[in-house]
C-alpha cells in the first residue's frame, strides 16, 4: 500500500438530485461513479476528474 500514498485523491459526494438537470450533467455524475444522494467516491485527482467536478460543481461536493 505504500505506493498508493504518493497518488493524490479527491473525495466526491453527490449533494443534490440530478432530476431536472441536463442530460450531459447526469452522464457526468454517473461517470464520476455516483448514483445516490450523499454517496461518496474516492477518485484519483487528475485534470479529467477535476474538469468533471467543475462541470457539475452545483451537484457535488469535493474534498481533499
Descriptive account of the structure:
The protein is α+β, with helices and mostly antiparallel strands and 64 residues long. The protein has a single domain, classed as Ribosomal Protein L30, Chain: A, CATH 3.30.1390.20. It has a three-stranded antiparallel sheet, with no helix packed on it. The model has no long low-confidence stretch (mean pLDDT 93).
Brief synopsis:
The protein is of the alpha+beta class. It contains 2 helices and 3 strands, in the order E-H-E-H-E.
Q: What is the topology?
A:
Layout: E1 9-14, H1 23-31, E2 40-44, H2 47-55, E3 60-63
Antiparallel strand pairs: 1-2, 1-3
Query: How is the largest sheet built, in terms of strand order?
Result: 2-1-3
End-to-end separation in angstroms reads: 19 Å
Average predicted local confidence, pLDDT: 93
CATH-derived topology: Ribosomal Protein L30, Chain: A
CATH class: Alpha Beta
Q: What is the helix tally?
A: 2
Name of the CATH architecture: 2-Layer Sandwich
Anisotropy-based shape: globular
* Domain unit count: 1
Are there runs of 5+ residues with pLDDT below 50, and where?
none
Kindly report the name of the CATH homologous superfamily. Answer: Ribosomal protein L30/L7
SSE sequence, one letter per element: EHEHE
Rg on CA atoms, Å: 12 Å
Helix content: 25-40%
List keywords for this structure.
single chain, 64 residues, alpha+beta, Ribosomal Protein L30, Chain: A, three-stranded antiparallel sheet, 2 helices, 3 strands, 28% helix, globular
